[in-house]
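Data's thin. Show one?
=====
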Amino acid sequence: MKRLPLFMILVLICALCSCQSLTPKPEPEGLTEIPSGYSFTIAGEYGPWADVDGANAQGKLLADAYMEVEDELGISISFNHAPGYDQVVSNAFGGRPTADFVYLSQQYWIPLAVKGFIRPLNSESIVSAGLDVTDPAEVDIYFTLASRELDGENVWAMSFSGGYFVNRWGHGLAFNRNLLTAAGYPADELYALVENGGWTTERFAEICRTVALWEGKHAVDGGQIDAIAEYSVSSGVRFTERNAEGRWVSNADKEGLASTVALFSSLKKDPEVTSKVRDNNLSVLNDFALGNLAFLAADGGYFGSESTSLNRVMKTNLGYLPMPVSRGEGYLHSVVNLRGFCLETVNSSYVVSVKIMSRIGELVNDPTAAEARIRSIMPDSDSADTVIKYMLPNTVFDSSRLNNEVFTLNRDMMDLLFDTKEDISGLARDSLPAIQKAIDEIFD
């Protein structure tokens, strides 16, 4: 009989012995005061140190902040590659933390939180160590508190935003002002719809069909309509949610999900509404900037000081709206694969880690500077207000991506629903058992 590899045996033991609820493991003893020469490490490839080499003005400020912490506390700060779920679990069984803090995507930190491998950051011991993850002066409150949705109580992943680094917000809809004004939808009226709660998927579809009447113009790129549908579902019905009993469930059987997909599917199948699929995102951006497309799905990564940024390519004639809602309960800002700093349970010197990270946060996090940064890269005050007033305060994590398997199943369902000529509601319901089984396996 074949023997299982040692790592697989450890993973099986983990599955059998893991917590049934989101309760952290007992806290081991470790360092509580910062020793001179301490080596503080952060593991992660994307986050508030992306420009720490000082390649640009913001990066230089960031590098200066880290150097100030090093000099002040008598420590060194280093950065390692981002770990995955398996590496964090393996390190835990080996009795060693991956780093002082690990910067993880939600498909990793969610199952790690459920199984007790990372600590809740709003626990009394963390607050006593000097970090308050509910204070907007210390953390990016919108992205940080979004992780609390997992169990409705604990904060599992935190992040910073400031003058040189702003968290990459989720997708909204950039729009061509001149094209939509000519079609009878001036920007002021669109922004009024957002303010009055009338910016719905039905109104979006109406505008798309109106734009289609213009020769040579399309409402949206054929490769983006699926994504816009996905983001609109995430901002309305949502793929999964925690129900009144605290259980995470799939919404594949909900009528709102099927009707939203059916609406966008009809738009996609209309060649006058959607253009042919472009080769890449840059081709889509260029066609939008030339005035051939009315809408462009764009997240925070599209805006910045680089020459290829949307706000630089298209300096005028640009507006920005939140994703239309697929049910009338206000806007939700779904962040694709929410990332944040996490603290491993196996880190016995977590008090030292927290004290150092808290000091970094004091220098790095600045909500006023973050807002100013957003306003400086958005095309006008209305577009900036879209992000600041309607998106960021309503931030939630990507409900389709509780882990990689759940994400794949939800994506497969969306592909099936878009391509079918059969009853969408029935096919969506047929997808429910497999998705729910994958969800339950995370929490069981």
About this structure: The chain has two domains: 36-167+336-365, 172-334+398-443. Residues 250 and 436 are 6 Å apart (CA to CA). The chain is about 45% helix and 10% strand. The first helix runs from residue 6 to 17.
